[in-house]
Amino acid sequence: MIKLNNKGKRITFKIFDERTKEYDSWFDKQQKIYKSEVDLAKRFPCISPCLEIGVGTGRFAKPLNVEFGIDPSVSSLKISAEKGIEVIRATAEYLPLRDESFNTAYLIVTLCFVEDPNRTLLEAFRILKPEGKLVTCVVPLDSQWGSFYEEKKKKEETFFYKEAVFFTKKEIKEMISNAGFILEKFGSVLHYPPNSSPVPEEPSFNENGSFVCYEAKKPIV
Fold first, then answer.
1. What is the pLDDT of residues 102-141, one digit of tens each?
2. pLDDT of res. 5
3. What does the domain layout of the chain look like in residue ranges?
4. CATH code of the domain made up of 2-139+170-217
5. pTM
């Protein structure tokens, strides 16, 4: 694991460091939801070299065959490193990476946790090669699950989402576009309410679900 100093801030830094095992265990407890989300993310495959920004414990990076991961949480990075991912400790807003060095970058449920989502997207643009792909997976505010988590935030009923900032689908697409990317396609899962029993789900190529992935291309200038 490569260790570098942070230059930025992360609102969720402490909670993910202090509750890493609790966070990671959610994926084991919610296998049907997790599998649906991974199956959707696989529809936007890694074209090597690949980077996940906000890699956490590698729950998405490993099945997506992502080689590199960035995260500010030391305890999370240790788990990712054990899975064979080459990790760097840093924030999404200040990537210690060369310009145009990756073909694919993933932001999977990361944008709602960063201090500056616009700068994060600009950094992703910088490190991607021309025609490189950015895959941004989010829980939109204007979705059933986004509204559910927003209410839990207000009632202080959640640890991991209490500092999250959710965006609407329109806001997310505008931020991606403003960073210089060209939106190419999208898909979603979690089309059922958050209080219902999880069910296996095939990805749909629409934005109607509560877990939505957007693929955008860095144009050739």
1. 999 999 999 998 999 999 999 999 999 999 999 999 999 9
2. 35
3. 2-139+170-217
4. 3.40.50.150
5. 0.91
